[in-house]
Design goal:
Helix content is 40%, strand content 29%. The strands form two sheets. A four-stranded antiparallel β-sheet has the order 1-8-3-6. The chain has a four-stranded antiparallel β-sheet with strand order 2-7-4-5, with no helix packed on it. The radius of gyration is 33 Å and the shape is elongated. By secondary structure, the chain is α+β, with helices and mostly antiparallel strands. The chain folds into two domains: 32-130, Jelly Rolls (Sandwich), CATH 2.60.120; 145-208. α1 packs across α2 (146-212). Belongs to the EMP24/GP25L family. It is found in: Cytoplasmic vesicle, COPI-coated vesicle membrane; Cytoplasmic vesicle, COPII-coated vesicle membrane; Endoplasmic reticulum membrane; Endoplasmic reticulum-Golgi intermediate compartment membrane. It comes from Gulo gulo. The chain crosses the membrane at residues 186-208. This is Transmembrane emp24 domain-containing protein 7.
């Protein structure tokens, strides 16, 4: 029969695993709160998105161009009355945080109208408001239990890990795009060098052949 020490160890292990499972379940995104989209923006095109926001809500817009051209895009953010809150031209990436001053539909647009033939791939993350508390007791004056505090810490750490993974994936995609573009240019340059070398070689062959070819001269007598 197990003693009190064994029972305590089993209880502690069960608490740790329960905390981990709870934190993982709480990481599942719920409706609203944040929007992450990766889309293709054709040349001479403009793409707009709309979000209904309540007054006093803190929002953050973060975007990055993954592929295409010089990896830049125009971005513009407007409030429900059409006032410009944020405007940047030919930015590769940026982040903007604001607090909604009124209720209504906010609009933010990405423009590639300055490009005539290059498509862009754009990623953006639009966060609206703060995440809801994991436990109802977080909003109370009373302190959290040890298990609740551990779950909150794990939840925050895993959110940071997700953010880092997202940025690393974007950098990896951008680096892969640049590597593929460089590989294509090197391939074209190699083909061009091969063609030039072939033309020069053929020209040298004909030039050397002309040096050793027999030149026959004909003499014409003019009668008196």
């Amino acid at each position: 029969m197990p003693g009190p020490g064994s029972a305590q160890r089993w209880a502690a292990a069960a608490g740790r695993w329960g905390c981990r499972l709870l934190a993982l379940l709480l990481l599942v995104p719920g409706p609203g709160g944040a929007s992450e989209i990766t889309f293709e923006l054709p040349d001479n095109a403009k793409q707009c998105f709309y979000e209904d926001i309540t007054q006093g809500t803190k929002c953050t817009l973060e975007f990055q161009v993954i592929t295409g051209g010089h990896y830049d895009v125009d971005c513009r953010l407007e409030d429900p009355d059409g006032n410009v809150l944020y405007k940047e031209m030919k930015k590769q990436y940026d982040s903007f945080t604001f607090t909604a001053s009124k209720n209504g539909t906010y609009k933010f647009c990405f423009s590639n109208e300055f490009s005539t033939f290059t498509h862009k791939t754009v990623y953006f993350d639009f966060q609206v408001g703060e995440d809801p508390p994991l436990f109802p007791s977080e909003n109370r004056v009373s302190a959290l239990t040890q298990m609740e505090s551990a779950c909150v810490s794990i939840h925050e750490a895993l959110k940071s890990v997700i953010d880092y993974q997202t940025h690393f994936r974007l950098r990896e995609a951008q680096g892969r795009s640049r590597a593929e573009d460089l590989n294509t240019r090197v391939a074209y340059w190699s083909v061009g060098e091969a063609l030039i070398l072939l033309v020069v070689s053929i020209g040298q062959v004909f030039l050397l052949k002309s040096f050793f070819s027999d030149k026959r001269t004909t003499t014409t007598r003019v009668g008196s």
